[in-house]
Design brief:
Blueprint (H helix, E strand, L loop, with lengths): L5 E6 L2 E6 L10 H16 L5 E6 L4 E3 L4 H5 L3 H19 L4 E6 L2 E3 L1 H7 L3 E5 L3 E3 L13 H9 L1 H10 L2 E3 H7 L4 E3 L3
Helix pairs in contact: 1-3, 3-4, 4-5, 5-6
Length: 186
């Protein structure tokens, strides 16, 4: 699973998986998603791996979500295939059978936040911003966020965030229950 888009390091039973498109705020291109799914599947089968930590390269974003430029240039069938791939990833993370942690530093938006929501634990750095801005482009959190977010924070708050597209800071995300901890940047 060689790819510059996904960096993988395993040490002492912990797999560190880095989304590596910092120049694009770690936006989720179809190619990146294919490599991410392959990495998650491989780690799921590795008995030596006890925990998987997902993070974004650079200090600006965990992931800004779907690569809108690519989607805008895609056919309806390609968009469907892209969404099915993303859904497979969030389901695989959620059912991995290992500890999964999203280490959020910077922006976690749209599909990027949906990937984080599929993890057991979400930790954000101070100054991070999280949200589901899909409504601003007439889309929905269709990779599982429409069901996961209400389970995490309740229907009312989830509806507010999903329907307004509001981005919230890490402290508010902690207050709401989107993340379990806010830490200083190292």
């Amino acid at each position: 699973m060689a790819s510059d888009l996904i960096l993988l390091e395993v040490e002492n039973g912990i797999a560190w998986v880095t989304l590596n498109r910092p120049q694009a705020l770690n936006a989720l291109s179809p190619e990146l998603l294919r490599h991410l799914l392959a990495a998650i599947e491989m780690l799921g089968e590795d008995d030596e791996v006890e925990a998987v930590v997902l993070m974004g390269a650079g200090d600006r974003a965990f992931s800004a979500g779907a690569d809108i430029k690519v989607l805008n240039a895609s056919s309806p069938g390609e968009v469907r295939d892209y969404a099915q791939l993303a859904i497979a990833i969030t389901r695989k993370i959620e059912t991995l059978g290992k500890i999964s942690i999203a280490a959020i530093d910077g922006i976690a938006a749209g599909g990027g936040l949906e990937i984080a929501e599929a993890c057991m634990i979400r930790i954000a750095t101070k100054g991070s911003r999280l949200g589901h801005p899909e409504v601003h482009i007439a889309a929905v959190a269709g990779w599982g966020g429409m069901t996961r977010l209400p389970r995490l924070i309740g229907r009312g708050r989830a509806a507010e965030l999903l329907l307004t597209g509001e981005m919230i800071d890490a402290d508010k995300a902690l207050e709401y229950g989107v993340v379990s901890r806010v830490v200083e940047r190292d």
